[in-house]
From TrEMBL:
The name this protein goes by in its record: Type II toxin-antitoxin system ParD family antitoxin
Gene3D superfamilies the record matches: Antitoxin ParD1-like
Species in which this protein is naturally found: Kolteria novifilia
Domain of life: Bacteria
Length: 84
């Protein structure tokens, strides 16, 4: 696979290699991708989250959703933004 990167990112990779942090551009890019904080979602993780949420509902670990309270809070925040 070949990708195009910005000159800024290319310079950063070159600096990392020059400092000895990585041996090649490929290694630097791979390390960057591997360090991303969030894993790619999968169907398994999605189903697991649904099961976890259902278990919380079944165990009563949820609160009623206060839609009017949510609307009031949104209105308050919008008014606050409009005022500034």
């Amino acid at each position: 696979m070949q990708i195009e990167i910005s000159p800024h990112v290319e310079q950063k990779i070159k600096e990392l290699i020059a400092r000895g942090a990585y041996a090649s551009p490929e290694e630097a890019v791979e390390a960057g991708i591997e360090s991303l904080p969030y894993p790619e979602p999968t169907m398994e993780s999605f189903v697991a989250k649904i099961k976890e949420a259902q278990a919380d509902v079944d165990a009563g670990r949820v609160d009623e959703l206060d839609m009017e309270g949510i609307r009031e809070e949104l209105r308050r925040r919008i008014a606050q933004q409009d005022a500034s």
